[in-house]
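Re: Re: ligand-bound prediction request (bumping)

Still looking for help on this. To restate: I need the protein modeled with iron/sulfur cluster bound, output as structure tokens. Inputs repeated here so nobody has to scroll up.
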Amino acid sequence: MVNSLLIIAALALIVQAFIGLTYLISSIWEKEKRASIFAGLQFLGMLGLVIAFFYLVEGGFFETPTGLALLIAGVSVGAIGIFLLVRKTKPNQRALKGTAGLTVGEVKRYDQRQHVFGRNRSIRPGSEQYRRFYREHPEMEECDAKRREMGLTLGQHPGAIDGPYGRANVAATFAFWSIPIYLQSPKKVKPQAHPELRGKKVSLSPEEATERVEGYTRSIGADLVGIAEINPVWVYSHRGEIYYDNWEDWGKEIDIAHRYAVVFAMEMSFDMVGAGPHTPTVMESMQNYAKGAYISTQLASFIANLGYSATANHLRHYEALMVPLAVDAGLGELGRLGYLVTKEFGPRVRLGAVTTELPLIPDRPVDIGVEDFCRICKKCALCCPSNAIPLGDQAEVNGSFRWKLNAKSCFDYWAKIGTDCNICMRVCPWSHARTFPHKVIVKLIIRNSIARRLFSVMDDIFYGKKPRPKPGPRWAGFNAGQSG
Ligand code: SF4
Ligand code: SF4
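Reply:
Sorry for the wait, this slipped through. Here it is.
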């Protein structure tokens, strides 16, 4: 029995030292200075344990009564610890119902005209729309007028946070921006079938259609794809964004006749987001919006060629709210920061969708432990420079029980620094690059509530409560002395 216990203890110690080593390598690769130091110390401690263990085995210590007692205690504690950390704890039934699980009252459809982006980008002072909107919403006029006076509208000070060193990144950001603009017209977002294919509907079972559509979406660049049956409350009630001088559309009711949404996500680069709130992060957001525009228009066109109507939803043409659709499509859960948190990349994603009448098989919403983790963590809220993310518990907002982002504070900060900030996304423990040790940690977090508590504390120790931005890739430099 002693020999069996010695083999188990030796294996356990070697495995933990190996995981410690991979964590050290991962931290160095991620350019996380603080984590590298802590991971180095942790690895040396683990290595010291292995060496001490074999030294004691050689000296026959574990054959003495004290040594044997220590061996039994050590193996037992280790076994209990592993059991407590890897067992699957109670699932979150709310999360498994998707957005229906968050609904506690009547949800009124969102009016795009009232959205802070719609108000500040699309309502021109002096216009008929301006008069109509503020007549109905006088409570918003003073605050919006003040923002305009101060020049705090998006695009007014692009890249301001980095001054002259960010200009090359601003140039790249606008280059990416040109793609959604190019793909914004009604013909592109609601495509017709190719003339050769018109009137020739392809007959597909829902299973085959789902497999083809999901495969196609991945093949053109999406990292995650899911299907949602559209809950109409997540469709905007009225159009409020002006995309191609479509002033006649402003204020029109939006009615989606489609039953399904193909929702997809693109991973944002860990290095680029790591520089947030500096200019590499807005370049990365825009690059993924450009990809989203490309993927959604291609996919809508594919479905139109199959003989079914389809509408692309991308940066310059949204008819529905992307995050609730993504939750219902099983891509992830809603986090405290107001973004979708996925198991594959955390909140480090951008979303797009195509709505369609093509019969598809919807995916199921998922429970990956985000709600429980966010209750403990609060890192995004602590790090948000505009205090836009609530530190407290979820509350009822328009019939949904969730954390409510203060969009006005967030928007004002974006406008001031001239990027889309992304600090909350950068500091979120779910956003780490998916190297081997982080994959293991995420697996444990998904399964187990104790792991969530443990790794939330560990994240603060290894990365700090308020991690600082990193320099980003050299080619996207934003400081004096950096290339770029
Ligand atoms: S930083 Fe923490 S609280 Fe915020 S979304 Fe991520 S896990 Fe949730
Ligand atoms: S993007 Fe920045 S300002 Fe907006 S919520 Fe996140 S951290 Fe706060």
